Amino acid sequence: PEALLAPPGARGYAPEPLGLPSARHALVAYHARRGAAVSPEHLVLTASTSEAYGWLFKLLCEPGDNVLVPVPGYPLFEHLARLEGVEARPYRLPRAHGFALDVGEVEAARDARTRAVLVVNPGNPTGQYLHDGELAALADVCARHGLALISDEVFSDFAWDAEPDRVTTVAGRALPALTFTLSGLSKVAGLPGLKLAWTHVGGPAAARDEALARLEWVADTYLPVGTPVQLALPALLAHAPVFQAAVLERVRGNRQRLLAARPPGATWDVVPAHGGWSAVLRIPREPGEEATCLALLDAGVLAQPGFFYDFGGGAFLVVSLLPEPEEFAAAVGVLARVLGEGPR
Q1: Regarding the domain delimited by 241-341, which CATH topology (the fold level of the hierarchy) does it fall under?
Q2: C-alpha–C-alpha distance, residues 197 and 226, integer Å
Q3: Burial readout 34-66 (b: 16 or more C-beta within 10 A, e: otherwise)
Q4: Peptide bond into 122 cis (omega under 30)
Q5: Which of 14, 89, 185, 193 is deepest in the core (most CB within 10 A)?
Q6: Boundaries of every domain in the chain
Q7: CATH topology of 11-239 equal to that of 241-341?
């Protein structure tokens, strides 16, 4: 791995605001393997998806504007938006829909200062993917109201199963709204320390090209991505399927262990999902999320309460599916025992 980061030219400096051509061509090949045809001219490299969000909020918003973000969801967008003087305005992923997208909730959350809609595909931690009909309806809403669509796809490669009409990526699709599709090495290749992410810009040609020109100016101001990791990107992406296969084997196996640990008639359930690295459990309202998490912690098991992710309409826990199988099997045994004890 060390040799990958010391290729010929790694100590040189050839600033390319949108990213080195070799890196962007490697991303074209990565998208092609996922069934998406994209152009290298429509790709922008950043040091992280968090940085990409900051750039997009600068691009799309004035201070006091808002962007719509899904809840329940990972609690990062509010902070990223606030740093740019932007409001992260929530729209609900209804429990009745399995925490999948409800376009009516998006329309209801929009106001005159909304500039973009964020989707996380698949949801984190809910694990639900977009589907073709949902994407078409959402793109129509965005086009009618002049909103950009931002699709966070860092976990998109980690599907546990196959579904009809699943949207693997928004990149490369002909949609009537300006689109930005985000991902990066952190999840795709399990390399968060190498600090490289990418954004695909799509949509109507005039809006897309104007956005790219403005993003190039922002990128030229920062030039954040190191040369060595850009030169190494083709090799890193070539290795990514090996990493992903190992992760998928583990999370699928651990999810099955979790499902098998639930006794018949239990008062808790594993929420249906289709991808990602986490599982969501619906638990009794009493004793509730915090008390259950503390009881688990006393027993040596770490879980996260649903309120960390702004779950509503009940009580929930979130557990990681990444631990070693033996460790996870022991943990779910404790989990089943604690949940079976009920209120104290």
Answers
A1: Aspartate Aminotransferase, domain 1 (3.90.1150)
A2: 11
A3: eebebeeebbbbbbbbbbbbbbbbebbbeeebb
A4: yes
A5: 185
A6: 11-239, 241-341
A7: no
Burial-class residue 250 by CB neighbours within 10 Å (0-12, 13-18, 19+). middle
Distance CA 299, CA 314 (A): 24
pLDDT tens sequence across 26-39: 999 999 999 999 99
Question: Angle, to 10 degrees, between the axis of helix 325-341 and the axis of helix 289-298?
Answer: 130
- Top CATH class of 11-239 equals alpha beta
List, for residues 145-160, the tens digit of each pLDDT value: 999 999 999 999 999 9
Q: Is the peptide bond before 125 cis (omega within 30 degrees of 0)?
A: yes
- Residue 98 has a pLDDT of 87
The C-alpha atoms of residue 191 and residue 232 are separated, in whole angstroms, by: 12
Whether cis (ω within 30° of 0) applies to the bond prior to 241 is no
Distance of CA 31 to the CA centre of its chain: 16
Question: How many other β-carbons are positioned within 10 Å of the β-carbon of residue 268?
Answer: 18
Backbone angles phi, psi at 209, to 5 degrees: -70, -35
pLDDT grade for 13, boundaries at 50, 70 and 90: confident
Q: Residue with structure tokens 């651990």?
A: 254
